[in-house]
Amino acid sequence: MQNSVMDSPQPKILVLGATGPTGRLIVRQAIAQGYDVTVLARSAEKARGLEGAALIIGDARDETVLRRALKGRDAVISALGTPASPFREVTSLSTATRALVDAMKAEGVRRLVCITGMGAGDSAGHGGFLFDRLIFPLLLRKVYADKDRQEAVVRESGLDWVLVRPSVLNNKPGRGDVRALTDLTGVHGGTIARADVASFVLEQVRGDTWLRKAPLITG
């Protein structure tokens, strides 16, 4: 039987990338809102500070581990990231997402909210001069090539997905004022607080406004 987020009074979510700076905020906000949260992390040490969430230890690229983590879940939030890689090819994001999609199908979990970033897909070229001309080509080109592959895996999954593309992230307090756009005419850059990204992402666990769409979000 497929799990339905809408039928669950207390959404049961799996968060990938929970030990990163945005992932931690997602977990904390979800717990504060009464979500039943499971996180997948490589070690208990990395997951320190995520009290209140159930912990599964393992590699996000391992479908067997993912299936175990997905048991009884209604939805998945992927906040997976990878460091800038100017020279080495990046494949971790698309590999993990491919394994995740297969595991979700096997376990009957349909809702996937996946964070990629401004510069992925048709948002490329909308980051502003510094991002588009210097940061992206010098530091992020290989990372975003894999984000593009990751987005393609999600789009072709047949799941109930939302791709979330934040503008440049900052660690300022959340403002509660998020602009979500798919028409990027005239958009050239922007910044957004990680806390606001976390709030927007959690809204997509149950909301259908952006279902099967890829909004760019900015402050």
From TrEMBL:
Q: Where do the coiled-coil regions begin and end?
A: none
What SUPFAM superfamilies does the entry give? NAD(P)-binding Rossmann-fold domains
Kindly list the GO molecular function terms attached to this UniProt entry: biliverdin reductase [NAD(P)H] activity; riboflavin reductase (NADPH) activity
Gene3D superfamilies assigned to the protein according to its UniProt record, in alphabetical order? NAD(P)-binding Rossmann-like Domain (3.40.50.720)
Native organism: Nitrospirillum amazonense
Q: In this record, what's one Pfam family?
A: NAD_binding_10
Transmembrane domains' residue ranges: none
**Protein name (record):** Putative NADH-flavin reductase
Taxonomic lineage is: Bacteria, Pseudomonadati, Pseudomonadota, Alphaproteobacteria, Rhodospirillales
Q: Which residues form the NAD(P)-binding domain?
A: 17-205
